[in-house]
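tokens incoming
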């Protein structure tokens, strides 16, 4: 699995869990309060209902914008990383026409570098 996808899923899960906490924040001090202000009885069923609806929409709005944007960026980055190789461009395949010109060229002499050993001698 793509490692950034795992990170994205963990962040998304954390955001969803934190939204639940933000939804209940106005009643943190009890149902008789709206944030830190004392509310009349039946506030959340009457006058406070449109206020709570607007508050929850404002809490959900950043997440609703963030989800599609991060999904698109994530899928594009997966596609881009799948097209590129970390070791650079791959060598030409043996059946390509370019390899025929290399086969007719004279071979270079390769030299082996003598690497000093640490007390052990390898057989020649």
């Amino acid at each position: 699995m793509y490692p950034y996808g795992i990170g994205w899923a963990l962040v998304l899960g954390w955001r969803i869990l934190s939204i639940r906490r933000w939804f209940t924040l106005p009643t943190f001090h009890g149902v008789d309060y709206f944030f830190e202000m004392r509310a009349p009885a039946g506030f959340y069923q009457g006058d406070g209902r449109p206020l709570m609806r607007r508050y929850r929409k404002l809490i959900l709005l950043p997440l609703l914008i963030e989800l599609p944007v991060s999904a698109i960026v994530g899928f594009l980055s997966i596609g881009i990383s799948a097209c590129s190789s970390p070791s650079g461009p791959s060598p030409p395949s043996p059946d390509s026409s370019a390899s025929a010109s290399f086969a007719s060229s004279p071979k270079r002499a390769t030299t082996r570098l003598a690497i000093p050993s640490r007390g052990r001698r390898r057989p020649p």
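note: The first strand starts at residue 33 and ends at 34.
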